[in-house]
């Protein structure tokens, strides 16, 4: 079949964004449904198999003309669906978006997660030592980053206030209309490990209590006295669900964080294992009601300390 929409076949790795990942999944679903290989799809529009593979992985893109031609040859006639695909190919971030202002605090590996959080309808997270970023109080964020003071001679260095603004900006998704469901399981260590002193921890745990009263936020505590069968609390990960805009089905992804590394896992068996672990931890941890009582007990203890001004 003749190429329908010729374009330069240069394959450059682009930063993955939520839109590009969703578009890639839709293209992959269309290819599977039509039993079309990536190589054959490339021939339809005059590009290489590697170009199609990059689009599917979320690291490449197609021109609007090429995308329209491809989905047309794959049998798509629904104009509304085609419009959705064309909208997904448009990058929602202007050039320099991540490199200006407080957004410089988002390391490159974190940017996809920030993007996914903004379009997710469910987020589930486990935390063993540090309160999850979306639940951190401003003073707690500052205490975490104050030891990392920037070089005073570097005018472009990311400051502590940049880190604070970047994290509080991410947190707005939990408070806006259409906010995602957020479910966190916190080890008791998160609440006992002190950052910034008693006043900061008092503010942080009080903040958790306030957030837990919101209908879209559920917080459970895993006390030291509860054993997690088969472990699971030692891993730090976020389970993200993004609604599908079309035929591919909802995007389910596990984001695994370690020192200096963030991994994005969308392999269904691997995500399914973490989903089962999270559900098991949900059954083992204190209920949301009992977790609130646990945190209220910690707040009373902190308020009784001489370091807290009355």
Automatic annotation (TrEMBL):
Gene Ontology MF: a single term: DNA binding
HTH cro/C1-type domain: residues covered: 37-82
CDD domains: HTH_XRE
UniProt xrefs under SMART domains: HTH_XRE (SM00530)
Pfam entry (one): DUF5753
Protein name: Helix-turn-helix protein
Cited Gene3D superfamilies: lambda repressor-like DNA-binding domains
Top-level taxon: Bacteria
